[in-house]
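Hi C.,

You asked whether I'd gotten around to modeling the 342-residue construct. I have! Everything is below, sequence then structure, no commentary in between.
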Amino acid sequence: MFHHIYIEEKAFSFSRTSQILSHFPNTKQIKIDHYQSLFHRGHQNFIAQKQSPALFLACKEPPFLYCGAPVCQSFGNQHFYYTSCLMNCMFDCEYCYLQGMYPSANPVVFVNLEDFFEETKRLLAIHPVYLCISYDSDLLAMEKILSYCAHWLTFTADQKNLCVELRTKCGYNPNLLSVLYTAEKLPERILSSLKQRFIFAFTLSLDFIQKTLEHNTASLLARLKAAQTVSLAGFPVRICLDPLIYIPEYKTAYKTLVELIKQNLLPEQIKDISLGTFRVSKEYLKRMRKQRSYSFVLQFPYELNHGVFSYPKSIEQELIHTILDAFDGYLPASKFYLWENT
């Protein structure tokens, strides 16, 4: 999976480091002072690194939690935060903002996970926290190696004012089942509360988009099966139709997607639905276009508004209304959260 593993000197003091390394007994290990000296060096090839990545094991320094960004949805939560105990993603979506945000595609695992927990508890002493743990990565995709989703789940179980969202493009696989098995081992009195506060959010894309732009991700049907499994286990399921991508035949394609959702999930199995069209900051898109001059989704003539590139208002509204019309009568309006260009 990785051609080299770079390990910060101070990361060796964590037992988690040796646990991770045990998965790669034949991979060359290189000791380093600080991951940023390599991760942020110039003239790296993001696309080449996606094909053959290295792995970094490092210790995160404060801050451990960040306030939610304006381009992200808070779902009505006042105290909205996100965290990145894993930087970068094992998937390779052509429209992903990470290729504009980071100079390197190599994943960085922060082994001092307990520091993230302590910072979360510090905030919880002040107010409730709504925390997204997989915005700058797909944490579930690395679960076999890290078990971070399971650790967050058990931590959340003990924090009654904490609500966590785990967002993913994974499908029905052993990683998901491992997390659900961890939950099953919890006492029922704790589990019943946890099932109200640990949200599994599945990003669903058109079959065409998944096959052409979302490299290495699970298929649409595999993600729907995963959502079914999570719901049957008693956890809330969020459907993220975000980002919606414009293609010439979008009306037919997105209506078909909605029908597949209806066929696989009952209304009561869906906590809510996130809707938003593709948008990205001006500086990120500039770097992304340089990385992938061939990508139709990046080369679209977007409009710039307050430093964010997005579709013209007419296209944005057509995409969102196509989804809403297809769902008409299936779910109440209160279950839809819309991001719109203002």
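If it helps when you're writing up: The chain has a mean pLDDT of 96.

Thanks,
B.
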